[in-house]
Amino acid sequence: MYLTQKLNASVSDLASVTEEYNSEVEDINESDDSRSVRDKSYGIKLDVEELEMLLEAYFAQINGILQKLTSLSEYVDDIEDYINIMLDDKRNQLLQVSITLNTINMIVNAGIVVVGLFCMNIHIDLFDGKPRQFWATTAGTLVGCILLFLVSVWWGKKRYLLSQ
Fold it and tell me: Are 118 and 137 in contact (CB under 8 A)?
């Protein structure tokens, strides 16, 4: 709209300049050299105005492109933030799995310590007993490890170390 107003103004200016030029052409006292200089100056003026209008149109297009690029850049930043949030969530899940596996490892090691204590070459009456005593000790160790694991998972959920 601004360009059309500017074009209309330049056309009206051109019409008035042309009328002045025609009235001056009728004047016989002017020399041919001054007329040729004036013809060139009017042509240059029109070319400069056209160039200004083209540059203004190009600047408007460049401004639109710049705004689109800015919005795309903001969109990319938002997507990066979203991806980082998703990665943080996955990292937290991996840490919870790591905590669970380390807890299982610690409890299994506690069971191994109990078994290791009973495998020493110490002479006590429990070792000279029946196989039923061996199975009772093994079952007690296994049940103790499972209960210890369940208590540690409950404690981890209570302290919000593990997800609910």
Answer: yes
